[in-house]
Amino acid sequence: MEIAVAAAVGSACLAGVRLLRVWIGSRDRVRLAQLRQQGISERVRALPPGSTLTERHHGHDVRVRMGAPRGGARG
38 with 30: CB under 8 angstroms? Predict the structure, then answer.
């Protein structure tokens, strides 16, 4: 009986550790995505009008084109 209780407690502890690792890992991935997006936003704000920014991260391409400079619009 004591062995069964010890096995159950051990299994519960291992499951808890596994869930904690998965939760921390997913939280880290979300935070890294937020930081990457924040970095792109800061670089875009620093660009002069008429510029193009291309970022590549793990197979994802992001291309940002800034509008034409003021006074340069046709019409």
Answer: no
pLDDT tens for each residue of 28-49 = 999 998 998 888 788 888 888 8
Which residues, in sequence order, are bridge partners of residue 63?
A: 54
> What is the per-residue DSSP string for 10-75?
HHHHHHHHHHHHHHHHHHHHHHHHHHHHHHHHHHHHTSPTT-EEEEEETTEEEEEEPPPPTT----
Predicted TM-score (pTM) of this structure: 0.56
